[in-house]
Specification:
Length: 254
């Protein structure tokens, strides 16, 4: 008897997949929190209005306050945040535009204020050189001022100067000031002009009599003036070219 076999059906069973779950680790959460916190802090300190400069106090500018304020406002239009505002760059710009200020100091007052402290140079003499005139302070620094200054000694010098250059030593300035104050009383003469012939160690002082007195600016001004007063009676009405007072022990005139 013949057996007949049929192909059996084969059934396969696939295990059901469990649904996938996206899990965030505790470490990841903390990193996200920190990033958000840092972003918030950066925005608060650099972009919020809390640290935007709203008050500017200018001290010592006097008649130049408006022009100084223009420079500061221009800077604030670029960066008004108190952390981003460059006080040093603003100080430099003010100093470059106004040589009359010997001191420019900007202080930040948190959260929203600036204090601009300015100190003006005080002119004590005038330097005339290369067809231009500069005011000179007690330290010998050259500067310019908008207002005209009168009744100051004028020293002629062959030099190329620009503002904030050191035109003279402080000792030279002190000598000229003392000379200017005491010459008329000691010599009973008027100073027509003061000239630096070569170096600042020597000055020629031209009088209204047509002759000049030669002074050594490194020596005592008072002593040289005393010597001039001693020799003037001997000179009298003579027509001379100069009186050389540089040697304190001897006086020469020609």
């Amino acid at each position: 008897m013949t057996r007949i076999y049929k192909n059996p059906k084969v059934y396969t069973f696939r295990p059901e997949k469990e649904p996938e779950h996206f899990e965030i680790s505790t470490k990841g959460i903390w990193i996200l929190v920190i990033l958000l916190a840092l972003t918030g802090l950066v925005y608060f300190f650099l972009f919020s209005t809390f640290f935007k400069i709203k008050n500017v106090y200018i001290v010592g500018a006097e008649d130049l306050e408006g022009k100084v304020s223009e420079i500061i406002q221009k800077r604030l239009a670029q960066k008004s945040n108190i952390f981003l505002f460059s006080d040093s760059a603003t100080e430099t710009e003010i100093h470059d535009n106004f040589s009359i200020f010997s001191k420019v100091k900007i202080e930040k007052g948190f959260p929203d204020a600036l204090k601009v402290e300015l100190v003006k140079r005080q002119p004590v003499l005038i330097c005339s050189c290369s067809g231009d005139q500069f005011l000179i302070d007690e330290n010998g620094i050259a500067f310019k001022a908008e207002e005209e200054i009168e009744n100051l000694p004028i020293v002629e010098k062959d030099a190329d100067l620009k503002v904030t250059d050191k035109a003279f030593s402080s000792g030279f300035v002190a000598f000229v000031r003392e000379l200017w104050e005491n010459f008329p009383a000691k010599a009973h003469l008027k100073i027509e002009k003061i000239q630096v012939p070569e170096t600042d160690f020597v000055i020629d002082v031209y009088t209204d009599k047509g002759w000049k007195a030669i002074f050594d600016t490194t020596k005592s001004c008072a002593k040289q003036l005393d010597n001039l007063a001693l020799i003037l009676p001997e000179i009298g009405d003579q027509e001379i070219e100069y009186v050389d007072l540089r040697l304190e022990e001897k006086i020469y005139y020609k």
